[in-house]
Structure prediction request, 265 residues.
Amino acid sequence: MSVLPPFELVRPPDLGGALEALSADHLPYAGGTELLLAMRQGLLRPAALVDLKGVRELSGISVIDGSIVIGGAVTHRTASHAGEVRASLPALAEVLQRVGSPRVRSVGTLGGNLCFAEPKSDVATILIALGAEVELASTDGARVMPVADLLAGPYTTVREENELLTSISVPVVDDRKVVYEKFQTMERPTVAVAGVAEPDGSRRVVVGAVGGRPETFAIGPDGHDPEEIEESLEIFPDLTGTESYKRHIVSLLLARVVRRLGWTT
Prediction:
């Protein structure tokens, strides 16, 4: 199906109006890079789209209690160019500058990317590595959870039909080292690996794009050796490669991450 099915467009003036408008057949809409494609393919047929682009409460970036708080409707391009993000979270800014295509970066939002739960998401992988949290709000209240807990599986989250992802909070940690490596032949990554070295000496890697959701592994005496990770991953074969091929790429990217962070194994 190449033509959008008929739907109503609701333009709430504020966050309260947006929350009141949401329901099972009234879906939130910001960039629409994934949503409109699913509608054209006949996978979704909502009665209405709730346009969030005019909701001021979802469009800002601020520093609150030592974290960078990014509104749910902020685009990849806006976040990657924001002074607060570039200064305090350079790894996130770098990843967002390479997400998808220029069109996707210009209109796609971080909140929409997470809520669509595309398994091959750069955004989810780096935000989990950075220890980010999301806020989900409804007319009944709000709840906060780690990004890793939001993602339930491929194209599935724990967000309820009446909830809206209002913000993403990323802690700023002095002297934290973060690197991100990915390999791709199409618009989305085939394999993505983020490595994090914390000031307290703890180390972890997050591997994304190969299974249903990113997987996190502690590295070191109480965790995994990098060489073991590729064997324990859940990996789905697809058009970008077989399971064995992806395990090989994971191994190569893990080696790069280890080298860039100066880890010894």
About this structure: The longest strand covers residues 164-171. The longest helix spans residues 243-261. The chain has a mean pLDDT of 93. The two ends are 51 Å apart (CA to CA).
